[in-house]
Amino acid sequence: MSTLDTARRAAAELLRESTGSDLPEWRATFVGEAHAANAIAPICTDEEHIESEDPSALDCCPEPVIPVDPPLVEYLVALLNADREGRWA
Ligand SMILES: [Zn+2]
Question: Could you write out the DSSP letters of every residue in the chain?
Fold first, then answer.
């Protein structure tokens, strides 16, 4: 088993508890006062939260909301979402 497989399995339990999915879709988000996205989080499934209108991390949003240096936000979201293609059996 690769290092990535091992790490993915270790993360799956937390992600399953908070999002209902071992490999949730991720998005760029905002925490605090910020002019650029400064965090990543799983997509929010709350029907009241329209992320295209308010991309902030709100109380309805699943954990983990992970603060990230802004230049890395889109890269990490892209990596995590690309990894969803690698779902194990
Ligand atoms: Zn939300």
Answer: --HHHHHHHHHHHHHHHHHS-SS--EEEEB-SS-SS--EEEEPP--TT--TTT--B--TTSPSP-EE--HHHHHHHHHHHHHHGGG---
Tell me the domain boundaries of the chain: 3-86
For ligand 1, the distance from its centroid to the CA atom of residue 81, given in whole angstroms, is 18
Distance 55 CA to ligand 1 centre (A): 8
Task: Report the percent of the chain where pLDDT is more than 70.
Answer: 96
Ranges of the chain whose pLDDT falls below 50? 89
Q: What are phi and psi of 64, to 5 degrees?
A: -90, 140
Identity of the residue numbered 15:
L
